[in-house]
Amino acid sequence: MIITSKRGSLILIGILSFYQIVSAAAPAYAMHIMEGFLPVGWAVFWWIVALPFFVLGLRSLTRITQAKPELKLLLALAGAFTFVLSALKMPSVTGSCSHPTGTGLGAVLFGPLAMSVLGSLVLLFQALLLAHGGLTTLGANAFSMAIVGPFVAFWIYRLVMPTGKQRLAIFLAAAIANLMTYLVTSVQLALAFPATTGGIVASFAKFAGIFAITQVPLAISEGLLTVLVWNWLANYGRQELETLNLIKSENG
Amino acid sequence: MTKIQNHKWNNWLLLLAVVALTVTPLVLLKDAEFGGADGKAQEAIEEIQPEYKPWFNSLIQISSTEVQSLLFAVQAAAGAGVIGYVIGLYKGRSERQNHHNENSD
Question: Were A247 and a residue from A152, A241, B35, B53 both cysteine, which residue would form a disulfide, CB within 3.0 to 4.6 Å?
């Protein structure tokens, strides 16, 4: 029994890794506001909005690692999950590609502030090395992906948990956080580029039409992948989840 | 143990659903380009404000799509590696504990 479950999990991990690597190989831009594509004023504005969350996030991370050093590995896993998922450019029903964000898992585990740092680091990596997103637009992208997304995930999880359906809560948290990230991106672009006729609202409809519909199947995929990793944690990382008060101790 | 079996079954279904979600658009929309959504957003910006010029360029612009795909693959592989490492470590630990519990019972 133990042997089959071990082999099964190894195969699962293998397939997931393979799938992730293969699907990451499609070279195309996917989401995020691109370098230089926000007017200076808006670029500065979103930097200023995002920075306090980043600073609070750093404090939150220090607190977590100092109070519970045994959670460092799980923290690494949360960061790695965002790292992987934001590299996955997946085809969508609109005929264009975009990628999940992976911030929901960490937000449920460690709270939204921790993810504001981890998500921003992923964005920085992509902006510097992959010319994906950008430094001038980093504030705006961090706000949508690393701040709004995790906060939405955190609150959705809190909202759904009273029903007792934990996996549903995780799924919805991750999926809706993903959608919200793109809606915020659409708002940011609409604010910076209001249409001559119809203004911000018309622009928002245009950008949301590009991002949001593309994102629906990807949001579902992200929710499913988040539950998948959650299942692994629930099986093997019970200690950590108990430490975080996310599951009740079997003895208690 | 039954609990773990139950999860494992669910995990396969989850993976299957993700694969289905990814493959379906490819099969249904044979002529689609599957370019990036942000490329489309860029086109939309040019439509709304044709006079807008990006005022900053990426520090490193890798024009080779092959190298770009390499970097994305590295990103995914590094992340997947860390996830696999952590889960593997937890798994080993929990199995040791189970073993220990069985012996002590």
Answer: A241
ipTM for the whole complex = 0.86
CB contact under 8 A, A39 and B52: yes
- Position A1 scores a pLDDT of 43
How many alpha carbons fall within 13 Å on the CB side of residue A84? 27
Q: Are strands B35-36 and A96-98 parallel, antiparallel or unpaired?
A: parallel
For the sheet with B35-36, list strands across it.
A90-91, A96-98, B35-36
Which positions in chain B touch A32 (Cβ < 8 Å)? 38
Q: Which residues, in sequence order, are CB contacts of B37 under 8 Å at separation 6+? A: A30, A31, A92, A94, A96, A97, A98, A210, A211, A214, A215
Radius of gyration (C-alpha) of chain A in whole angstroms: 18
Q: Which positions ≥6 away from A70 have C-beta within 8 Å?
A: A239, A240, A243
Give the distance from CA A187 to its chain's centroid.
18
Q: Convert B25-45 to b/e letters by CB count within 10 Å (16 or more is b).
A: beeebeebebbbbbbbbbebb
Place of tokens 């690597």: A21
Dihedral-angle region of residue A102 (phi above 0 means left; psi in -120 to 50 means alpha; beta otherwise): left
Using H for helix, E for strand and C for coil, what is the string for chain B? Answer: CHHHHHHHHHHHHHHHHHHHHHHHHHHHCCCCCCEEHHHHHHHHHHHHCCCCCCCCCCCCCCCCHHHHHHHHHHHHHHHHHHHHHHHHHHHHHHHHHHHHHHHHC
B58 token code pair: 């990426």
Strand partners, A32: none
Residue in chain B closest to A134 (alpha carbons) equals: B58
Residues of chain A with pLDDT below 70 are: 1-7, 12-13, 15-30, 250-252
What's the pTM value of the predicted model, to 2 decimals? 0.86
User: What gap in Å lies between CA A86 and CA A129, rounded to an integer?
Assistant: 14
State pLDDT tens for residues A92-110.
888 888 889 999 999 999 9
Contact B14, A224 (CB under 8 A): yes
